[in-house]
Amino acid sequence: MTDGWNWSRPPTSPSSGDPRQQPYGPPPGSPASPWWSDALTDPWRDPYAPSAVVLPAPPPTGGPQLDTPPNPDAPRRPLASIMVICLVTALLAGGVGGTLGFLFAVKGGYVDAGRTALGAPGQNTPESAQRAEESFGGVVQRVQPSVVTVRVSGAIGSGFVVSADGYVITNDHVVEGGDSSLSVSFHDGSTAAAKLIGRDPESDLAVIKVAKDGLTPVALGNSDQIAVGDHVLAFGSPLALVNTVTAGIVSALDRTIQAGEESGTTRYYAAIQTDAAVNQGNSGGPLVDAAGEVVGVNSVIRSVGGSTTEAGNIGLAFAIPINQAKRIAEDIIDTGKARRTVIGAEVITGEAASGARLRAVESGGPAAAAGLRAGDVVTKLDGRPLDDGTGLIAMVRKYAPGSVVAVEYRRGSKPSSASVTLAADTN
């Protein structure tokens, strides 16, 4: 066995039938092969393998020549020109793709031409999409059209529409001194003149009427059904920042407050306390629960400021319960005057007596009819503990005339109880 590199023709025998012994050369009668002699000297040819040479048929004459094999002797394109063509093609493809991608991105709002795009693209939510009714956004959308900014002689306060024909509830201290110069503005920027219908300084409530038809009134809730921890929203124009909404919770109920300027009317509140941010200008605006119903009228803030101009929110604000505000507003609209609820007794204020000590009892009044006397100390009213006389006045004014309330009191060291039917002040 050899690798063929030094192969030589083996001897032949004319009588041998072994094909390997046949003489090499073209078969008799066959046309001479133009490469036969080359094959005889091919060092890689198996000298014992039979061979047959089949020449391809000549191509047809006339017509196009199909599947013509490449001519190995034809001149080839230089490698440099091929590389240039590939490079130009790649650059053109990249440029077109990049341009189309940029145009689509700009059209889709994902990038701003000439600026770096940060963040992932958001959902294409229409600007007019309505928020869920139970969400804060849904509540604001329903309530905000009914909230107004009240402007009085350069001062500013808030209020809210309670009837389609234009009645608005606000604070008495908002409209004080502005009988002929009232105007309101709405959340959409429109304005309208307003006139004072009536006011009750001691409850700090007033009613004005707006000269505009087709208004949307707010829904009024039940302030007796709210609880500490409920979510609330405060609407208004604090610090002249119109259309402001702040959020918080009910942080206390029946917080008895005595307010008012030293030379003015003393006001008493059994207030809803909230930690929603309330500042000057919020006065008269609605306090709204999570259902979008008004439960209070924002009225008082407590501040560490030394004067009215320095007062600011410190996480405590107080609202008049809407049940009380609604009753007084109806009185003002129907009669021009609010009825004040009384117990028929005079109390001592500023005394630490663990309750409200009665200075005097009106003959024939509600307290006297229930058996109370001067000197008795009322410790609870309708189950609500009282600290002093201020608390008794504030709690009594929360109820409507004719309401029957349970009273617990102390006479000397002996505890007693009674039911008192509250009445309206005849003055």
Automatic annotation (TrEMBL):
Composition skew (Pro residues), residue ranges: 56-73
InterPro entries: Chloro_Bact_Ser_Proteases, PDZ, PDZ_sf, Peptidase_S1_PA, Peptidase_S1_PA_chymotrypsin, Peptidase_S1C
Membrane spanning stretches: 79-106
Record's keyword terms, sorted: Hydrolase, Membrane, Protease, Transmembrane, Transmembrane helix
Domain PDZ: 332-388
Stretch list, region Disordered: 1-75
Pfam families linked to this entry: PDZ_2 (PF13180), Trypsin_2 (PF13365)
Protein family membership: Belongs to the peptidase S1C family.
PANTHER family: PEPTIDASE S12, PROTEASE DO-LIKE 8, CHLOROPLASTIC
Protein name: Trypsin-like peptidase domain-containing protein
Organism listed in the record: Actinoplanes sandaracinus
